[in-house]
Design goal:
Organism: Scophthalmus maximus
Order of helices and strands: EHEHEEEEHEHEH
Catalytic activity: Release of an N-terminal pyroglutamyl group from a polypeptide, the second amino acid generally not being Pro
Strand order of the largest sheet: 2-1-3-8-4-7
Number of domains: 1
Low-confidence stretches: 211-221
Number of strands: 8
Strand content: 15-25%
CATH architecture: 3-Layer(aba) Sandwich
Number of helices: 5
Mean pLDDT: 92
Protein name: Pyroglutamyl-peptidase I
Largest sheet: 6 strands, mixed
InterPro entries: Peptidase_C15, Peptidase_C15-like, Peptidase_C15-like_sf, PGPEP1_Cys_AS
EC number: 3.4.19.3
CATH class: Alpha Beta
CATH topology: Aminopeptidase
CATH superfamily: Peptidase C15, pyroglutamyl peptidase I-like
Structural class: alpha/beta
């Protein structure tokens, strides 16, 4: 057993509206079947399409499990590719959820920033996965749609200091089957973990350089 296993949480959503089967949860279950390898401790869960449930669930996921990365997956009827969302938005939540509820303020966090970006550069993740030729096209978006997907993403980015990601998948068979979506999620999450690792070494590197500069240029202060 590896002591320092990376903890990753991946969530999908329950059915809503005309999505009697939510391809996001199907894809996440497929990912669970595939796994993320020995070095990664993967936990998956299905998120209700309800604003208040998201507000209750997400803090407990971040606090209790202390993950390195949380990836939320949602379905988009408009998507034809696996779409990586760069940022989550705070305002504009007018659509009613599965309980016919929407926040009175129409926002996630009363005093939060209007937009929070993931620490992960989705363009890089996208390029790498597309270059790996897994037979599933990946693209990047900056608008997660102002419904439960965007709401969940913003909340998670806020709680996790940006160590979160959101992936939109098309409905099943339009064009990808569950196995293809699962395989794409696996490739995407692996690249994300790789980037987080690189980021850490860059941060440490920067920190070390910064220390050296401080000692060298003391007479300037």
């Amino acid at each position: 057993m590896m002591a320092n296993k990376k903890k990753v949480i991946v969530t999908g959503f329950e059915p809503f509206g005309n999505h009697a089967v939510n391809s996001s949860w199907v894809a996440v279950q497929e990912l669970e079947r595939l796994g993320l390898g020995e070095a990664v401790d993967l936990f998956v869960c299905e998120v209700p399409v309800e604003y208040q449930a998201v507000q209750r669930l997400l803090p407990s996921l971040w606090k209790e499990r202390q993950p390195q990365l949380v990836v939320h997956v949602g379905v988009s009827g408009l998507a034809t590719t696996v779409t990586l969302e760069q940022c989550g938005h705070n305002k504009g939540y007018k659509r009613l959820d599965n309980c016919s509820f929407c926040p009175a303020s129409q926002c996630c966090m009363e005093r939060g920033p209007s937009c929070i970006s993931s620490v992960l550069d989705m363009e890089t993740v996208c390029k790498r996965v597309n270059a790996s030729d897994i037979g599933v096209a990946v693209s990047v978006s900056r608008d997660a749609g102002r419904y439960l997907c965007d709401y969940t993403y913003y909340t998670s980015l806020y709680l996790g200091q940006g160590r979160s990601a959101f992936v939109h998948v098309p409905p099943l068979g339009k064009p990808y089957c569950s196995q293809e979506l699962g395989r794409a999620l696996q490739a995407v999450v692996w690249e994300m973990l790789d980037l987080l690792d690189q980021g850490r070494t860059e941060e440490e590197h920067k920190h070390n350089e910064h220390c050296n500069h401080k000692h060298q240029h003391q007479h300037h202060h």
